[in-house]
Amino acid sequence: MGDQYFLTAAVALLSAVYMFSPLTSYVGALLYLTLFSRRLSTRVRVATSVIAILSGASIWASRQVGLNVSDDFMWYYGVYSSVDTVDWTDRIPVYEVGLPLFFKILSLALPGLTPNGLMFVSTTVTGLILLFCVERFGVREFPREKRAYCVAMVFLFFSFVLTTQLTRQMLSSVLLVNVFFGLRAASRRLSLLLASAFHLSALAVYAILRTFQSRFLLLPFLLVSVVALAKVVDVQAAAPFITDQAPRVAYYLYLTSSDSGANWAALAIVLGVAVTGLMSLLILKAANAEVSSREKQTLALLVGVIIIYLLTLDVMLGPFRLFLVVHAVMAGWFFAYFTRRFPSVYLLLGGAGLIITRSLFLINPTSSFVPWDVYGPFSALPGYFMQSYLSR
Questions:
Q1: C-alpha to C-alpha distance for 312 and 318, rounded to whole angstroms
Q2: Burial of 82 by CB count in 10 Å (0-12 exposed, 13-18 middle, 19+ buried)?
Q3: In terms of pTM, does the model score above 0.90?
Q4: What are the tens digits of pLDDT across the range 83-136?
Q5: Which DSSP letter does residue 137 get?
Q6: What is the rounded CA–CA span in Å between residue 386 and residue 373?
């Protein structure tokens, strides 16, 4: 009982730290989940995960809005602040009603949020949905003593920054997680429907990833089709003809056709996780441990994703967008899944090393994604960042 009081008190301490430094509480929460994974109860694990989500949301809600023309949140804030008058279909198709409805609810429940406040709320909601999916379905194959480690890796790899930029597709991608984790067909169908309401790409993502999880009967056809698309079709030459008939397609062609850096960055994440998975399975095989069909299937899925990346790296942000659910949402789960069978001491040291390394990027002033534009990472005033959420 005394041990549980101590572990619960640590959660309260992290909550207090959050009020003075979201950065410290984020790193502290992930380290706490990793280092004390064996001892944490479900309630303590969930509470600590919520602190990590709130901290990550506060970190990335500190970025400035509108620094470049591709910042979708300028338009998203207009949807929230004037949802009855803004012609949101200019940037959001009429059939993708999820985000406008979500923001309408927020405008009624939490009126007067600033752009930073809206980013914080949206990111928090996205993170909580992901936490529900992971806790409800994603940790089933993890021993109890390693479940907190799994959650820590999920929110270490989870892209908080993209929830403030690609808001619709990140919400869609998080809802898609339940499609791959859920056991009941009705639940999976409902999740796919909701994901499509936020971003219609959910249907294509689901179809392709399901193909990789099948017996690969459709894989040769898919690969040939992708090669033909990448090598034969000149999307830039077709853009003038697309403009009038399909303005949203033209928008993406003009805006992102030369941006391949995101494709490479996302590929690096998927490749790193896949290599970790391959090495893990080889080590288990060398130790005469059984490698399950699920583990082989999961690794095959990542290999299929990597193949598509390599074939389409120069095609707009195609692979980056198509596999957002893999590299920006589920990458941490894949990493934890492949390493879960190793002794806890290795997971403790490796996980802590990754968390500390990641934290260095969040305070690196030369990083292109440094978020501390509106408020700093530390303050002596409790709740100092909340002023930027509520005051206009």
A1: 7
A2: exposed
A3: no
A4: 555 555 566 778 888 998 999 899 889 988 999 999 999 999 999 999 999 999
A5: I
A6: 14
* Among candidate residues 218, 308, 297, 296, the one with its CA nearest the CA of residue 270: 308
Structure tokens at 20: 């003075």
The tokens describing 237, both together, are 């030459």
Per DSSP, the three-state class of 390 is: helix
Chain-centroid distance of CA 182 in Å reads 18
Residue-level pLDDT at 223 = 61
Query: 354 and 33 in contact (C-beta within 8 Å)?
Result: no
For the chain, domain boundaries: 1-199+351-392, 201-342
3-state secondary structure of 62: coil
How far apart CA 389 and CA 392 sit, in angstroms, is 8
User: What is the number of residues in the chain?
Assistant: 392
Using only the alpha carbons of the chain, give its radius of gyration: 21
Please classify residue 12 by burial: count the beta carbons closer than 10 Å to its beta carbon, then call 0-12 exposed, 13-18 middle and 19+ buried: exposed
Query: What is d(CA 282, CA 129) in angstroms, rounded to the nearest whole number?
Result: 34
* Closest CA relative to residue 99, chosen from 59, 62, 72: 72
Nearest to 53 by CA among 119, 126, 137: 126
Structure tokens at 310: 């390599």
Return d(Cα 201, Cα 193) in angstroms, integer.
11
Nearest residue to 83 (alpha-carbon basis) of 68, 62, 97: 97
Q: Rounded to an integer, what distance in angstroms lies between the CA atom of residue 340 and that of residue 150?
A: 8
Token pair of 359 as six digits: 């934290």
